[in-house]
Amino acid sequence: MLRHQTVIRYISQARPALLRLLSVALLAVWGLSLQLAGAQEISPAYEAGNIEIEPTGALWLEGSASVVDYRCYAESLAGSGEIENTTEPTQNVQGQGDVKVKVTIPVKALECGKSKMNRDLYEALKAEEHPSITYQLLQATLLSESTHPDSAGWMKIQTEGLLTIAGVTDTTSLVVEGQLVGQERFRVKGVKPLNMHDFDIEPPTALMGLIKANEKLTVHFDVSVHLNGGGE
Question: For 135-158, what is each residue's pLDDT tens digit?
């Protein structure tokens, strides 16, 4: 009994000190939690801006038919979008920022060099119902960056996007090459094989079916985009 009373007296005497110690600990934890919450709320100091496809870019289709190969160039190419980090543009494909862009190609801007071939292509692509081919970039991720002195800073970038042809939209995955040219221009080039049947396109024919285009074709592009900072 005496031992029990001694323990109770000791706890009673020590209680104020224990309470003070507990209060200090709680305040420290609370302060640390505020600091962590504040750090999570602070976003990187990006300068967002707009991007625009330069009209000097090149895009063309290459395909083959039973008796001839063909190549059709896009005489008109337009596109625009948004870029989250204009201060360090290449960081947008390294998880430090984001980029969105949509490209539009009028079907009747494709020129194959022969009026009959143009007409057959426009008909196959259903130009009257769907006058434009569009591409919308959804995601871009850096795969590798060359360190060779002769590489001129080219990077390999994995892209995911939505390609719409003749009214049919398909998710498209493509590895492209990108190069920062100065601080305001970014050049992108690549090659994408396509199958017309994936877009419900019947390959063009001529001479009562004696000449028929192969269902497979290849899209080539080499374009540059201009970066406009948010302060401009």
Answer: 998 888 888 876 555 566 788 999
